[in-house]
Every structure is written in C-alpha cells, then in structure tokens.
Amino acid sequence: MSTRTITGNLAADPEAVTAGTIEIVSFRVIENTGDYRRGEWVAHDTPTTHRIQARFELGQNALASLNKGDAVIVIGSEHTESWGEDTNRHYGRIIDAQHIGLDLARAKAGPTITPNN
C-alpha cells in the first residue's frame, strides 16, 4: 500500500455503512488536477475522483463534520478493491483515511475538541 495525500471537494455528503461490527464512513473527493506548463498552471480536462473510507472515531467525526462541497485534505493508504462476478469484475482504488481535515487554504473552520477515549 502507498500513502497518498489529496486535496479536493466532497462530491456528496459522507455515508455510513456497517461491515460486521465496524461502521465505515465513505465519501468521494473530487480533485482538480493539472500540470505546470511553461510556468503556468493548466488544469486537466477531467478532475480525478477518489473514493475515501474512514473507520472508528475518524469516520464518526467525518460523518458529523463534513458536507457536500467542503474543501478537504485526506491522508491515507491506497489500495485496490474489486467487486462483481468473475465475468463482470470491476476494480477501483480506495484511500483508507488516516487523517481528514478541512483545507484551510480554501475554507474557514472553528475547532470542536473531542475528548480522548
């Protein structure tokens, strides 16, 4: 697994699903990517969409704090996930979040401290 850091905006509100006894919060982040060409930023034609999953307190805090359109920074481990039957198998990249925060270069936030358990 590789560690990734991405910035972007939430494509939709986070959603929680239960897998066994663990609640997993998932959401998509749209990252506007591009390149510097001759010293100027040139955006790519199509933004990159990342699927993010967060567990435990991080997932609960993301669910309570984030909304569609929020500017975020996500740091996590990236892996490939597959789904579907053998003849219709699909693959996608997932970032298992270790840290999620508002991108203060593009948003304002006021802290709400949660006690350590």
- Looking at the chains present, what oligomeric state does this protein adopt? single chain
Q: Could you describe the largest sheet, including whether it forms a barrel?
A: 5 strands, mixed, barrel
What is the H-and-E element order? EEEEEEHEE
Number of domains: 1
> How many DSSP H or I helices?
1
Q: What is the β-strand count?
A: 8
Q: Structural class given helices, strands, pairing?
A: mainly beta
Order of strands in the sheet with the most strands? Answer: 1-3-6-8-7
Principal-axes geometry comes out as flat
Cα radius of gyration in angstroms: 16 Å
Strand content: over 45%
CATH topology: OB fold (Dihydrolipoamide Acetyltransferase, E2P)
CATH class: Mainly Beta
Mean pLDDT: 90
CATH architecture descriptor name:
Beta Barrel
The level of helicity is under 10%
Distance between the termini: 28 Å
Key attributes of the depicted protein:
8 strands, 1 helix, single chain, 117 residues, OB fold (Dihydrolipoamide Acetyltransferase, E2P), mainly beta, two-stranded antiparallel sheet, 5-stranded mixed β-barrel, flat
Summarize the structure.
The chain is mostly beta strands. The chain is 9% helix and 56% strand.
Description:
The protein is mainly beta and 117 residues long. It has one domain (2-102): OB fold (Dihydrolipoamide Acetyltransferase, E2P). 9% of the residues lie in helices and 56% in strands. The strands form two sheets. Strands 1-3-6-8-7 form a five-stranded mixed beta barrel. A two-stranded antiparallel sheet has the order 4-5. The two termini are 28 Å apart.
